[in-house]
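Duplicate of #3305? Posting structure anyway:
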């Protein structure tokens, strides 16, 4: 899978355009506000559509760290490298 061209954006009713950071679990993805990258949302997908769950910066960081750790264990190095880069830009 070529991850370089897989950027995903969705529109939040209040906060505007959100940028997808990564998948967390099945039907759960981590998004942040596009420009400031200070507000984070866990976006849940179900039969009724999208649900936005606001989460704190620390929780978002832990979710991304867990995803990176799982990718490393699974040997998925292309996505691992991409998420490492996103982690650096977003949290450091």
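Output from current build:
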């Amino acid at each position: 899978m070529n991850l370089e061209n897989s950027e995903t954006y969705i529109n939040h009713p209040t906060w505007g355009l959100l940028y997808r950071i990564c998948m967390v679990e099945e039907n759960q993805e981590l998004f942040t506000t596009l420009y400031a990258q200070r507000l984070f949302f866990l976006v849940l997908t179900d039969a009724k559509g999208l649900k936005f769950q606001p989460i704190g910066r620390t929780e978002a960081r832990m979710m991304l760290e867990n995803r990176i750790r799982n990718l490393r264990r699974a040997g998925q190095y292309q996505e691992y490298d991409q998420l490492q880069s996103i982690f650096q830009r977003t949290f450091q």
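Confirmed duplicate; merging threads. The two ends are 27 Å apart (CA to CA). The chain has a mean pLDDT of 90.
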